[in-house]
Model the fold of this input.
Amino acid sequence: MKNKALLIVLIGVFGLFSVLAGCLNLEKNYPEKRYFTLDASREKDVFPSDKGEVLTVRRFRVSPKYESKGLVYRLKEQNYEYDFYNELFISPSSMFTEEIRKWLAVSGLFKHVVDPSSLVDSPYILEGAITALYGDYRVSAAPKAVLEIQFFLLHEIESNSKIIFQSQYHKEEPLNGNTPDALVKSWNSALNQILTEFEADLKVSVQKTKH
Done:
């Protein structure tokens, strides 16, 4: 009789735990992480110049506010937020350096465009910094992507480096929706515009050094 009563109690306890587990749903469902890449696609590539010089593109620095891979949203004047679930595939520094190097490699301004690990002699050195990289949502009805880049071109002659060009480019592109996809798409558009303008300015500076 005691065994039967104990069995009934155990069945009841097991049933209670089953019900509680179902009610509490102990498994937490987190959003799936998504990764994005930046892409500066030019309308027309130009083959490298046989008569051009070599350009070394150093790693671009990124302002500490934007150096993490998570997308950055500006919600208020002094209120920024990182998106842990939507990130750039690699660090902003690596991604921008790669895109800028690829862009200039097919610009026709230089014979070769290399990174600092190359042993090729390079009279031109490009440095830069990403000083703004965020989605601006302070005006909810008109969100925009903000991108700002500084460029410094150095000309090295007999181990002496001289800055022959420096400029800062700032672009704000409207978003077609409040989604991470829309933000990255507008960043790409802004990057394309900045590199187009920078290339035109760079061409003038390089030509001046040849005279």
About this structure: The longest helix spans residues 180-209. The two ends are 109 Å apart (CA to CA).
